[in-house]
Amino acid sequence: MVTDLVQIRREGEKLRPENLRFRKWIKSHTFVERQFRRAAEEVQVSIDCRTCAECCRVTEVQIVDRDVEKLARFLGISEQRFLAEYTAAGEDGKPILKRTGRGCVFLDGKECTVYEARPGNCERFPHLLRGSGSLESRMWDLVDRATYCPIVFNWFARVKALTNFK
Ligand code: SF4
Ligand code: SF4
Q1: What is the pLDDT of residue 130?
Q2: Ligand 2, from 55, 121, 152: best to mutate by most atoms within 8 Å of Cβ?
Q3: N or C: which end of the chain has fewer CB within 10 A?
Q4: Taking residues 89-98, what's their average pLDDT?
Q5: Residue nearest ligand 1's atom 2 by CA
Q6: Contact (CB, 8 A) for 26 and 60
Q7: pLDDT for res 30
Q8: 21 vs 25, 128, 129, 139, CA distance in Å?
Q9: Which ligand approaches the C-alpha of residue 124 most closely?
Q10: Domain boundaries, the chain
């Protein structure tokens, strides 16, 4: 299992064209989603997110009203204050968690300081096992995530081997 983030960044970028090709390829082949999910479960249990936190450093987290409610309650402040102090507008104008030079505003080293109340998007990340639609329909984002997330990077290697993709 590859967990070195520098290696993943380098190899993930190098593999991007191949992963895009794989994404297209599975659309024209029949595959068993359960097999892909099992591979995701196996990879996910062997990687400890607490030693990584790369997604908290590199991704923007979109939040919804439920997240705002939960986080404001957790921090003991009003929703208005939470929105003013901890959120910003994303590229599409929707609210995201504010970011510092080191990533998410709630990241401290490799720890999430609001872990119990973290947004749904963080709970579901990297959206291999939890997310809407089939895995196939989520493949576009996964190609990008394979350049920084050890779980997705290793999952791609497994499913390409499973399907004998060349
Ligand atoms: S809320 Fe926590 S889990 Fe989500 S990005 Fe921020 S630090 Fe990471
Ligand atoms: S989901 Fe991926 S990028 Fe995020 S902490 Fe876990 S292994 Fe790292």
Answers
A1: 80
A2: 55
A3: C
A4: 94
A5: 112
A6: no
A7: 76
A8: 6, 19, 22, 11
A9: 2
A10: 5-56+135-162, 60-124
